[in-house]
Amino acid sequence: MSDNAADGPHPLTDAHTLLSAVRARRARTCEDLLAALPAVKPRDRGPAPVTWVGDLQQGDGGKGAMVDRLAPHHDLVVRVQGGDNAGHTVAFRDGRGPATVLKNHLVPSGMRHPGVVGVIGNGVLVNPETLAGELADLDARGFAVSGRLLLSDRAHLVLPLHLRADARQEDGDRADGEVIGTTRRGIGPANVCKYNRTGVRVRDTADLDLVRDRLRLSAGLFGLPPSCVDDDVEWVRAHRDLLLSMAADTTALLGAAVEAGRPVLFEGAQGPLIDVDHGIYPYVTTSPTVFHSVPAGTGVDGARVRHRVGVLKAYQTMVGNGGFVTEETGELGALLRERGAESGTTTGRPRRCGWLDLAHAHWSAELNRYTSVVLTKLDVLDGFDRIGVCVGYRRAGDDGPLPFRPEEDYLRSCTPIYTHLPGWRTSTTHARDYADLPAELTAFAGFVSAYLGVPVSGISKGPHADDLIVVPGGELAEVMAPAPEAPVPTAGAAADPGRDTAVAPGRAAAPGQDQAAAPGPDRAAPVTAARRAGDPGTGRAGSGPCVAVFCGAGAGTDPRHRRLAAQIGAECARRGTHIVYGAGGVGMMGALSDAALEGGGTVTGIIPRSLMEREFGRRDLHDLRVVASMHERKALMYDLADAVLVLPGGYGTFDELFEAVTWTQLGLHDKPVVLAGASGYFDPLVGLLDHALTAGFITPDDRALVRHAATAGEALDLLSPGRFRPAAGTAPDRAAG
């Protein structure tokens, strides 16, 4: 305890009161963070996308162009990692003249679209001079991003001494044949300082004495003259106003945005072939380039990223040194290089070219677990009679087909095993829809998808934004679903032009705030707290609470338990109690949802994508939400519901109940848990809870949250207002069934 009388006792001393105050403070902080973002964009269907765009090759497959195409469907575009050694090219036509080409190295792609907020994450290495030049170029071209670009205050800087160290290493410190072929942008040395704890972050530039100390240590590390320290301090002084004007706690912002259901797009740089841990070492960059760079470079939980879109060029390219099994050094390689304009965006160096290496792409798909693939630059292959595809390797003593392994000595000992697919003799230039594509091209895409075990969701047959063809029913079609038209205000309901009316899915509207997002043709808009309060036009049966129901999905569950589930569903519909459940269509889940819907009730289904892909989800639900994981499903169910109802016989029911109690102890929710049924199913579990209470592992209040009801009616009676939390000291119900 503090001995300082001036501290005094905190005016809030009760544990639950303090907890409420902490939660309120957290909520205000989130609201403040989100206040700077644009109004929520209404979606035609499905939850707001959280998307990552990565590469299946070295990194020049067209991520920037893909991000630019997806940016209008997201609120934030976040550059995740790398530095100005990565160049992203965007080309588009606006009908007013020749195509516009933008080449960025640090500014996230897609910033040409109004209303998109850009974020440079903590995993990015920032050269302030490059950043200033890009901002000036965008401004001169009429794409001002002032006020729309945020920079992580924890991002490390690339300084002039890092460029000097990089050049010296490439020019003289390596033996012949060991030159990596870096971009000489100082990225490697900057990462050395970062992990040596002598780096300079954006936030550090506010203290030039601290900067000087860090620079002195770094100069000594690289054997550079002391004079470079003073030069670099002045260089930092010249750029720090720009850096600090954009600096923000982007980890907190992105966490709040994802939690609020805002659509967020993460932009990767480079590709897995040069990942520092998983690539062809030592011919790698010094940053992570695979999917785990997203949580590391932004602070956002990787499980929240539902869409992992990988770009895959229809042939293979590589810049710099390292093993390249399908490289063509003759006429074919030169033709691909010429037709594809294959030179590095950052260095201008010509790229090495060859046929597509699917053995390598499969390794990349397994490593990153892409949810779909976009094939790019297919127009380069227009007119070929046959198109080569590498399906594996052979080496001395083993005819294969051998898989890809990211080891230099292994790759240099391998030769490709090709299959040749029929080419398409026609041009794809004028194709605008999937049906316009040549049959040979769609067959090529089908072969790639079958080999990788990943669906192809898009085909790009040119460099411009409108050269993307979306595969009907694919992942891109879901992410890029057009926003619904704004509803026409009714008489007497004049809109307030100064007020944003859209609310993120799953979040409560502010008092007096309307919901702007209209339901799509095949799916109702997500249920929110405002709708649970009975706002008109939602199709709700009444204005009762929302209950999360945990029950079994197996077809072989006990008939008594299925009958109880049906009774719960019917009773919820009768009382106007909204149901949130696991989206199953058979067993107890099917009985529950069938009875609720037949009675005119409303149901929200939440299911992990992996289960949805295995056809376990009930696809006819108007409000069906597909999430990344079981954990995210539980969290969303707890968030939406006012109480938890647990039925007997469900797979994992005991686990669900223990987790509910644990979450209560941790202060993550304080919602009642009602056990339904009189079969004796819960007796062992209730005994364990009573033992936990006696042993002091849970409090009386926590134990009192878990109640028992023998029938559906009794269960819902316990959820009526005023009975959510028994008063402290109330004896908990002893479950008899």
From TrEMBL:
Main location: cytoplasm
InterPro entries: Adenylosuccinate_synth_dom1, Adenylosuccinate_synth_dom2, Adenylosuccinate_synth_dom3, Adenylosuccinate_synthetase, LOG, LOG_fam, P-loop_NTPase
Cofactor: Mg(2+)
Active site: D60 (proton acceptor), H88 (proton donor)
Keyword check for Transmembrane helix: no
Reactions that this protein is recorded to catalyse: IMP + L-aspartate + GTP = N(6)-(1,2-dicarboxyethyl)-AMP + GDP + phosphate + 2 H(+)
Keyword flag Cytoplasm: yes
Subcellular localization, as worded in the UniProt entry: Cytoplasm
Subunit structure of this chain's protein: Homodimer.
The protein, known as: Adenylosuccinate synthetase
Organism: Nocardiopsis sediminis
Lineage: Bacteria, Bacillati, Actinomycetota, Actinomycetes, Streptosporangiales
Gene that specifies this protein: purA
